[in-house]
Specification:
Elements (H helix, E strand, L loop, with lengths): L5 E3 L4 H10 L4 E4 L5 H6 L11 E4 L9 E4 L2 E5 L4 H6 L1 H6 L1 H7 L5 H6 L2 H6 L6 H8 L3 E6 L2 E6 L4 E3 L2 E2 L7 E8 L5 E9 L7 E12 L2 E10 L6 E2 L1 H7 L6 H9 L1 H4 L11 H22 L6
Parallel strand pairs: 1-3, 2-3
Antiparallel strand pairs: 4-5, 5-10, 6-7, 6-10, 8-9, 11-12, 12-13, 13-14
Length: about 300
């Protein structure tokens, strides 16, 4: 027996919004479906509601765009993460997002899963989300009232809780500033060794290099709370400082006091995660620092 009563495949965003609005029961958009469909099949519908209608947005052209648009990189919400991983455009302007998407699930999942679904699922350590946070992404949202842009962190309310009204709104895509000279990003994670698993910790960095100094930096880390987190205290410590072992040691000393890790049976102890965060912080900052010298061809 199906876990829903009606499955609609619109061709445009307006058609998708109309399908959500006119559904006779609870409705949700779906793209890759690697999270939502599994939850429905396991009897875990969103917000505890049995869904009546699924609106498949995966074939809407605008949601599958991956392009430079109005001086920004635009990634449509329904672009498969496989395409993001392999895109030369993403490699140039948002390498942390490409690296993050390359670690989502296995090959079959990456062929189907979407970056929009990764974000809409609202988990604090979703790899694609962490990469987008470090890149300073904005989320484009469509509703019957029109379009709006929101900072990506503004749409998270808790574990699995999104500020998106998914019964009447569509996540259109993500806007990311284009990479400028001296800028670079990187992503990394530590996970258990038994194949595809939850990350023990993941971390993404974007930085602006000015000579031998870190002019500006953004650091995203998860899971360090119920929502994705910016490591703002560590960013403030690093900004304007020379890149050297002393500066990195100062940054790592703030991990224990500025981030919140807890012991998790599925991940690791809090103490181990604090240790790993310091190791990963130095590794990913160093990688982004070296990349900032690369000359674009």
């Amino acid at each position: 027996m199906s876990s829903w009563s009606q499955f609609i495949i619109p061709k445009t965003i307006d058609e998708a919004l109309q399908a959500l609005a006119s559904a006779p029961g609870p409705a949700r958009p779906v793209a890759g479906g690697t999270d939502l469909i599994l939850e429905l099949q396991q009897g875990r519908p969103p917000a505890g509601q049995a869904l009546h209608t699924l609106v498949d947005v995966s074939n809407i052209d605008e949601l599958r765009c991956l392009e430079v648009r109005d001086g920004e990189l635009f990634i449509g919400a329904a672009v498969p993460v496989r395409d993001i991983t392999n895109s030369s455009l993403i490699h140039k302007h948002a390498l942390a997002v490409s690296e993050a998407c390359g670690l989502i699930g296995g090959p079959q999942v990456r062929n189907t899963a979407t970056l929009g679904g990764n974000v809409a699922h609202s988990l604090p350590a979703a790899d694609g989300t962490i990469g987008l946070v470090a890149l300073g992404a904005q989320v484009e949202i469509a509703s019957s009232q029109g379009r709006r842009l929101e900072p990506i962190l503004a749409i998270f309310r808790g574990v699995g809780l999104s500020a998106l009204a998914l019964d009447r709104e569509i996540l259109v895509g993500f806007h990311i500033p284009l990479r400028l000279p001296g800028q670079a990003s990187a992503f990394g994670r530590v996970m258990r060794p038994q194949g595809v698993a939850l990350p023990i910790i993941n971390l993404a960095v974007w930085l602006q290099r000015g000579g031998e100094r870190i002019e500006a930096i953004r650091i995203a880390v998860g899971p360090a709370g119920p929502t994705p987190q910016r490591a703002t205290a560590i960013e403030a410590c690093l900004a304007g400082k020379p890149f050297n072992p002393e500066t990195l040691d100062q940054a790592k000393s703030l991990v224990d006091t500025s981030l919140r890790f807890r012991t998790s049976p599925q991940r690791a102890t809090a103490a181990y995660r604090y240790h790993l965060c310091k190791v990963l912080l130095e590794e990913i900052i160093s990688r982004a620092w070296e990349r900032a010298l690369e000359v674009e061809k």
